[in-house]
Amino acid sequence: MANGRKASGGARRRRTSSASSSGAETPRPSSPPSDSDLPAVATAPTPPPAPKPEPPPTFYPEAAARFDEVVTAIEGDQVIGWAQDRIDPDAMAAAGLCYLILKKKYGKKFTCYTSRRMTFPMNRNLAKNFLPTGLLKRCEHEENLKEVVTDSELILVVDATSVEVMTDLNRLLQSSEDLRQKRIFFVDHHRRAAEGDLEGLENAEGIRIESAGSATAICVHLLLSLGLTLDPANEEEFKLAVAAKVGIEIDAIGQEKHELNEAAQAALHYLDAVVGEEGLNYVDKLRNLKNPVSWYVALGNALRLCEKYDQNVAVCGVGVIDDNGVLPYVANAMMDTGQFRSVIVFGIVYDTEGGTFLSTDLEASGRSQRNTEVALPDLFSEVFYWVDDAGRRISCGGGRASSVLGEHSSTGASVPLNYWLHYPTMSVEERIDVLRHFAWPAEFVRIRNLLAPKLGIKPDKILSVYPIPNGFAST
Ligand SMILES: [Mn+2]
């Protein structure tokens, strides 16, 4: 169908470099641009030198002491880090604070690796305008990733320890026993994964504080415990404080402020004092960033079929798209109609850069509200998987439920489609055609066949926004 091509053709949004701010001399980020670069709306006037906020009582001093021992033992002046695929604000800010600690206290340079494109405009903007330039590096852009990892004395992993959410690190660790012997230090607030957790490796250790609520809150206290502070008059530190505030708050979504633990509250209180009114304005602007227009096209396509979905659980295949932010956005908007108790949206998502395909995945996003019949986290882990060489199913989906009865749940999945990623084509355009005409019908039918019996709905209630060839349209 022709009307879907625009979103994925060669005319991708291009960012100009004018808005990328870097270094200590650049002005404060002007109004954070939307994904397509807003012009600078209001360049903030240089504020009067703000007094340095009083550091709060610090938490986790033992963790800081161990961090200090581990970093002090490193001889080189470079440390590499790792964060989850599609790095989120908490991981970003935690990486940013580690960067600052390593730079100011130990004189070391820090580069944090992550795979896949970030999901939301806010995240992309935060990375671009509020984090030090060069801190984050996409694994797909590093030609010698294996050498980089082999050569580094330490891998500092933030906000994750499950290898399943760090695709490229997982691949490297699988490939070499030497790499599995690497020294790893993690700073995380998630529960240890039952399988495939870095903590199970011989030379891995770290800080795991589940009650902290975010990796950023832990890192704020690391910074303070190590005798450092954030200076609002310093460009880089001011921006990092803004990022840290966003990081903590995003991971606390669904919780009231008073429900956060003392350490997180103290960290937020301190960051508020550092960023001041100016910083709070940036936080608001970041929250209100507009979505790219292609997202509305996908939403329109999905809503066009509104009458045909199952009322209990609407399932929509949005086809082939070039932006992974579309799926949670469409899922949320469909829930907002109030017509469905659960929504599952899936599609083939690719990411290109400079004529090269960086990834091609089958991705899905699910939302549920007061639906006791559908347990989305379990469903996602059963339905979204890939099969390894030994025939084992490796699950690539999961999520959170806010109560046992599925009061509210939010899930995601990302299954690599390696066959299609490596499918030889003559051009990007041809590849997109192949994905749309061949990969999509095959993947759509596959997911429909897996989902329909598990959801107890008829296959023809699972809809594709693009027609599927005859014989498969309904059964
Ligand atoms: Mn987190």
Provide key terms for this protein.
475 residues; alpha/beta; inorganic pyrophosphatase (n-terminal core); 6-stranded parallel beta sheet; 14 helices; disordered N terminus; binds manganese (II) ion
Summarize the structure.
This protein has 475 residues and is α/β, with parallel strands linked by helices. It contains 14 helices and 14 strands. The chain is globular, with a radius of gyration of 23 Å.
How much of the sequence lies in strands comes to 15-25%
Number of helices: 14
* Average pLDDT score: 86
The small molecules bound here are: manganese (II) ion
CATH class bucket of the largest domain? Alpha Beta
In terms of quaternary structure, the protein is single chain
Q: Kindly report the CATH topology of the largest domain.
A: inorganic pyrophosphatase (n-terminal core)
Name given to the CATH architecture of the largest domain:
Alpha-Beta Complex
Strand order of the largest sheet: 3-2-1-4-5-6
User: Which segments are poorly predicted (pLDDT under 50) over 5 or more consecutive residues?
Assistant: 1-27, 32-45
Give the structural class. Answer: alpha/beta
List the helices and strands and how they pair.
Elements: H1 61-72, E1 78-82, H2 89-106, E2 109-114, H3 121-130, E3 136-138, H4 145-151, E4 155-158, H5 167-175, H6 177-180, E5 184-188, E6 204-208, H7 215-225, H8 235-251, H9 262-287, H10 293-303, E7 313-321, H11 326-336, E8 342-353, E9 356-369, H12 376-383, E10 385-387, E11 393-395, E12 397-401, E13 408-416, H13 418-421, H14 428-455, E14 462-464
Parallel strand pairs: 1-2, 1-4, 2-3, 4-5, 5-6, 7-8, 7-14
Antiparallel strand pairs: 8-9, 9-13, 10-11, 12-13
Helix pairs in contact: 1-7, 2-7, 2-8, 7-8, 7-9, 8-9, 10-11
The structure holds manganese (II) ion.
Manganese (II) ion binds next to loops.
